Amino acid sequence: MNRFREYLSSLAPLSDAAWQALQPALSERIVPKSGFLWSEGRVCQALYFLEEGYVRAFTDLDGVDKNLDFHFEGEVVTHLSSFAAGTPADYGVQACEKVRVTVIDRYGLFAAAKAEPELETAGKACLRLTAARSEEHARLFKLYTPLQRYEYLEQQRPELLQRVSLTQLSSYLGVARETLSRIRKRRAL
After folding, report:
1. CATH number at residue 107
2. Residue numbers in the chain where pLDDT is lower than 70
3. How many Å apart are CA 56 and CA 69, to the nearest integer?
4. Which terminus of the chain is more solvent-facing, meaning fewer CB atoms within 10 Å of its CB: N or C?
């Protein structure tokens, strides 16, 4: 959990008292490959800080998995609207390899933030980062061609190209696997 504390401290100053107030909301969890942080249709009751491993956010579209995003070590994963409003999530998050997460319980977090305002400040900063990443992701898919998306990943998110399978990556980019293979060949020349 030291990595999580460092992450929080990078967002806002964090006193020892605030860290201690947060302790009841924190737990560690190991999720095996193919296990879920939460499933589609279930309420997301926590924030998940990825200590080790990576996950995919996906939904089932007519029996076919559609990969929506990937999250790696050092990132917070949650379903913002489900977490905030307590509504069922419209996608699930699944471990792509063995994952170790720090789980930040929703109700425990809210209680700790009431007691220690600096936690609320750090929480808001975390949500701003999550929202900005979501906006960047939406812009990527609204404005860029598949080739431009791939080039963006090369520059901004190379871990996707290094760790994510070709099948999952093609689903994420919204192209057929064969199209992705052609893009990769073209980029390798």
Report:
1. 2.60.120.10
2. none
3. 6
4. C
How distant is the alpha carbon of residue 129 from its chain centre?
Answer: 11
91-114 pLDDT, tens digit each: 999 999 999 999 999 999 999 999
Question: pLDDT at position 37, please?
Answer: 97
Q: In what order do the strands lie in the sheet with 64-71?
A: 36-38, 92-95, 55-61, 64-71
* Domain-located, residue 138: no
Alpha helices, H only, 12-157: 16-22, 80-85, 106-115, 117-143, 146-156
Let me know whether 115 and 29 are in one domain: yes
Compute the 3-state secondary structure of the chain and give helix, strand, coil in percent, each to the nearest 5.
55, 25, 25
Same domain, 121 and 179: no
Cα dihedral 56, 111, 122, 39, rounded to 10, equals 10
24 lies in some domain: yes
What CA–CA distance (Å, rounded) separates 100 from 146?
32
Whole-model pTM: value is 0.91
